[in-house]
Amino acid sequence: MEAVIGQWVSDILKGIQGGHPVLRLSACTGLLLGLEDLKVGEKGEGVDVANGRPGLEDETVVALAEVMDSYASTVSSGSTPGVEEWEREFQPAGHGALLS
After folding, report:
1. Is-contact 96 84, C-beta < 8 A?
2. CA angle (64, 67, 73) in 5-degree steps
3. Does residue 6 contact residue 31 with C-beta atoms inside 8 Å?
4. CA distance 50 to 53
5. How confident is the model at residue 36 (pLDDT cuts 50, 70, 90)?
6. Is the per-residue pLDDT at 28 higher than 80?
7. First to last CA, the chain
8. What is the distance of C-alpha 79 from the center of its chain?
9. Where along the chain do its domains lie?
10. Which of 33, 60, 62, 85 has the CB geometry, 3.0–4.6 Å to 28, for a possible disulfide?
């Protein structure tokens, strides 16, 4: 079972290569959560999928970095109206005044 799941994860990673970073990030995080659910099983009877996990974790980190990079470049170029207002809502009290 472990080998089949490892191959399945590997095939999914091959399929999402070159895709949009947000979609890759969501697919990878969903797979990581699913693998964690398989591992946890009742009374320690879960499936150990350690052989597929490292590549999936690496792809998740790369996708997250690409999402953050694209977000940062969008904000710095000012091409998306309203982003500054959206960010201001999530700043701690006192920091919003600095951005105005």
Report:
1. no
2. 140
3. no
4. 5
5. confident
6. yes
7. 56
8. 24
9. 2-99
10. 60
Quote the CA–CA distance of 27 and 60 in Å, as a whole number. Answer: 9
The chain-wide mean pLDDT, for the chain, equals 77
Cα–Cα distance for residue pair 60/66, rounded to 1 Å: 10
pLDDT at 63: 92
Dihedral angle computed from the Cα positions of residues 94, 82, 72 and 61, in that order, rounded to the nearest 10 degrees: 90
Two tokens, residue 97: 């005044």
Tens digit of each residue's pLDDT (9 = 90 or more) over 38-71: 776 555 566 666 777 888 999 999 999 999 888 8
> Contact at 8 Å (CB) between 91 and 83?
no
